[in-house]
Design a protein that fits this description.
Its EC number is 2.1.1.170. The chain has one domain (3-208): Vaccinia Virus protein VP39 (Rossmann fold, 3-Layer(aba) Sandwich), CATH 3.40.50. Helix content is 39%, strand content 24%. It contains seven helices and seven strands. It has helices at 3-16, 22-42, 50-62, 85-91, 104-117, 148-155, 174-178, and strands at 73-77, 96-101, 122-126, 137-143, 159-169, 184-192, 201-208. Helix 4 (85-91) links the parallel strand 1 and strand 2 (96-101). The radius of gyration is 16 Å and the shape is globular. The termini are far apart. 38% of the residues are buried.
Length: 211
């Protein structure tokens, strides 16, 4: 593991105000190494360079942490290569996370990553999100999984009584917000600063309206 990667991650975490112990930082970098190794066969990410992956995959995923501070359960829908679910799981071993993807190649990788990284708080599920009916969670999240209205329609049944959505977006989703159903409350939209990532990022928090 190169010292450049370690320093890049460490500096990024400092800029984000995140305090992780050395073991967690090492696990994050091991995850990147696994991603790179499996990527050749399974096409998990367009990135080939580990240094780029630190910003694009690790730090970008970790912008989720402040928004799930009080959550006990989380589902990462369309998890793909495990973002944001795996980096979040490494940083929050108390948070029970389900990684869901319909692509069996991707969930094969996710299962292996969970085993190799020793993530006892993670469950991997293969299948279509609309077919998942045996689990309700505090937070449903996704990174570029679908338009907001589709994301809501496909995952509404997964939220528990006080659950909410944390949708990770690139540029401010003006058009998508116009199509959010009337019975859904968009209660917070934050522009995010991600170190080592020269691209816009936004977090959109939504919840079903009560009554």
């Amino acid at each position: 593991m190169s010292s450049d990667l370690k320093n890049r991650l460490k500096n990024g975490l400092q800029q984000m105000g995140l305090e992780l112990d050395a073991a967690q930082q090492l696990l994050l970098l091991e995850y990147i190494a696994l991603l790179k190794k499996w990527n050749a066969t399974y096409n998990l990410t367009a990135l080939r360079d580990e240094a780029q992956m630190v910003g694009h995959h690790l730090l970008d995923s970790l912008t989720l942490l402040p928004y799930v501070a009080d959550a006990a359960t989380l589902m990462d829908v369309g998890s793909g290569g495990g973002m944001p679910g795996i980096p979040t799981a490494i940083c929050r071993p108390d948070l029970h996370i389900t990684l869901l993807d319909a692509n069996t190649k991707k969930t094969t990788f996710l299962q292996q990553a969970v085993i190799e990284l020793g993530l006892n708080n993670v469950t991997v599920a293969t299948g279509r999100v609309e077919a998942m009916h045996d689990k309700k969670v505090d937070v449903v999240t996704s990174r570029a999984f679908a338009q907001l209205d589709d994301f809501i329609a496909l995952t509404k049944h997964l939220l528990n009584e006080n659950g909410y959505w944390a949708a990770m977006k690139g540029v401010y989703p003006y058009e998508e917000l116009e199509h959010v159903p009337a019975d859904v409350d968009v209660f917070r939209i934050d522009r995010l600063q991600v170190p080592d990532l020269n691209a816009e990022r936004h977090m959109v928090l939504m919840r079903p309206q009560k009554g």
